Amino acid sequence: MNRLGIRSPRGLAAFAVVAGGLVTMAGTAVGGSGGVFVGAWVVGVGGDLVLQRSEPGLMGRLGRLHIGETLRFELRCVLMLLLLGRMHVTGPVGLASAMATVLCLLGGQALHAAICTLMRRRRRLAVAARHIDLRGLRISDRPPRRLTEWPGLRMLAYEVSALAGLGATLVTGDARWVVAGLAAAAGGCVVTVLALLPYLVRSRRLPGPARVLAEVNAWLARHRPETVLYFTGQQGNTWLETVAALRAPALVILRERQLLEVLGPTALPVLCVPDATHLRALDLGSVRVALYPANVGENIHLLRVPTMQHVFLGDGDTAAGVDPYSKVYDQVWVAGRAGRQRYAEAAVGVEDADIVEVGRPQLDGVRVQEDDDRAPASVPTVLYAPGDASPAAGGESLVRRLLESEPPVRVLYRPCPSTGRRSAAARAAHRRVVALIGAANERRAGQGADEPEEAGALRAEAARCRAELTRRIAAHGARLRPAYADEAMLTRDSAAPDPAADEARELSEQWHRAHWAASPPWLHQVVETTGPSLHSCFDQADLLISDLSGPVSDFIATLKPYALTDTGTDTDTQEFRRQHTVARAAHLLGPGAAGVDDLLRLLFDPTRDTLRAARHELKAYLLGPTNPPSIQRFNEAVDALAAKGEALIRLREPQTIHEGAADAPDAPDEHQPAAPCTCAPSVPAAPPPAK
């Protein structure tokens, strides 16, 4: 079923009904059996309706294979004409009229599809934007969705009309009924096409690339951003808040339109420029610092601009994050000394002087466990956050040991978002872990817990608050992206920075507080991707159990104890710690959750935590010093590099003016066109090293 994109047995049955109905209609049309033909058509239409509602993935796949709703409707119409010809119930004139009406209907459908395609292409602007005033482009509204989308529902309406006419003709022998049914369907199609024509005319007036780029350049000239966050994947979302906190005006540049759909809440101005030619036409002369969260091929399109200082926000804490391509940047920014050492050991051509330690600004808000705040909780919380494969590799036995521990602990199980996508064993293990946690909660609820009398009322109130906040957050998301708006309308309507981004952040914080307040302190939880954030789970946890592919490097910022599970059986403990930096301050668990009992004892007796000092050292090594905060160091690094870039530009200016005067013609031609902007000159495809 997964290969077909079918999610349920009901969808599979509906697909079989549709396919069987078409086969039956073909056989009965040739055999001239009208009653069975009508019955098969009715059943097929019902199957189509079920697929429309329950299997949108399958319908999309069938459309890509060119056997979508329109083709199935056309096939049924052709089979109906074949049936009428075989049964001789309409006569030559009636059959010819039916054929002419079907041709008009199919022609109207083709015209409708052509108009929708033309409008969709015309409404795709050269540049999409958020929080940038481009209202001067006078972008018109898109057509209502009922006119352009939902082809399956329109086809079903046409089929019902044709089917009713066919049934009446078979009963009465009068061909006018089937012609009338087909004419009604064709009339509905004509009305839809006529309703689209005004929108088609307005779409022809939408601005072309030259006008859009001119309007964007006018905005850039007015606002003069000095820093650019440039990314082509979702890695950039983690840097949005950091860049928004910069003192200098900043701009986000995306290279893929689909990234606008998954862009995190931000008040920063955003430009989506898919075409490299359009990117080169932007006037980015005010930008001094360009930040790149990922090493991808499309970075070269901005690396060509010589007036910027280019920075790779390196993930030097892992060997995979060290890349020889990093030497094309002016600087590489890492979190701490670990990143600097990684580049030195890799010898990929990045000079030590070009590496800057800025910390991890995203972790500044994580709650840190201070030395004087080590009193054990009555029911400590253990966060189990494995990587993709860990549930299949001993995670089930580990969770069972945690749930059965005495004294008891609370378990927060936060699986990796990709758990089970590639491994059926991991998916099955994840389901068993969820079942274990559910059964444990039922046992604890049955035993009862010592709680104040008002605890139940407080949780009920918090649960109501959580539900209200969830509703408000959903409504806020609908305001940010209305269901009827397309990309061009969103570019037009998001002209000013949206203060609702701060509202969304505040609502999210309130929702998190309500979530934890509504949960009894002893209640185990399965935290899915739609639940509390990972950093919120960090704040609740007293201990993390994970693996090398989990969130250990972020959890180190809390200074709380943590343990690793995938230590292997053939590797010496000391060698494992030497090979993996994050293991230096980790408690190591053996196969079958060996050592978990000793690990849990330190939650009730903090004096048993012998790795506290090691965690302090490792945090400083991986993330840098606590003071000044990472966001302050990041700001200072941006300011210093921007000043360096400005100084380099001023050094070039006298030489450029001198060379221009020496090469200038004696008498300029007043009819000669102005020279293009030189902020992004054409250079060879491969950028030279920044050294």
Offer a few descriptive terms:
eight-stranded mixed beta sheet; alpha/beta; disordered C terminus; 691 residues
Can you characterise this structure?
Strand 5, helix 13 (300-303) and strand 6 form a beta-alpha-beta unit. Helix content is 52%, strand content 7%. The strands form two sheets. The chain has an eight-stranded mixed beta sheet with strand order 1-4-3-2-5-6-7-8. It has helices at 9-31, 34-54, 56-64, 69-87, 91-122, 145-148, 151-172, 175-204, 209-223, 240-244, 259-262, 276-280, 300-303, 337-346, 395-403, 424-447, 455-480, 487-493, 500-517, 534-540, 552-555, 573-579, 596-604, 612-623, 630-663, and strands at residues 128-130, 227-231, 250-254, 270-272, 289-292, 309-313, 331-334, 355-357, 381-384, 410-413, 525-526, 543-546, 562-564, 587-588. The model is unreliable at 664-691 (pLDDT under 50).
* DSSP helix fraction: 40-55%
Tell the overall outline: globular
Q: How many E strands?
A: 14
Overall residue-averaged pLDDT value:
82
Gyration radius, in Å: 32 Å
Specify the structural class.
alpha/beta
**Total of helices:** 25
* Major beta sheet, strand line-up: 1-4-3-2-5-6-7-8
Which stretches of 5+ consecutive residues score pLDDT under 50?
Answer: 664-691
Question: Main sheet?
Answer: 8 strands, mixed
Question: Span from first to last CA?
Answer: 55 Å
β-strand percent reads 5-15%
What kind of assembly state do the chains in view correspond to? single chain
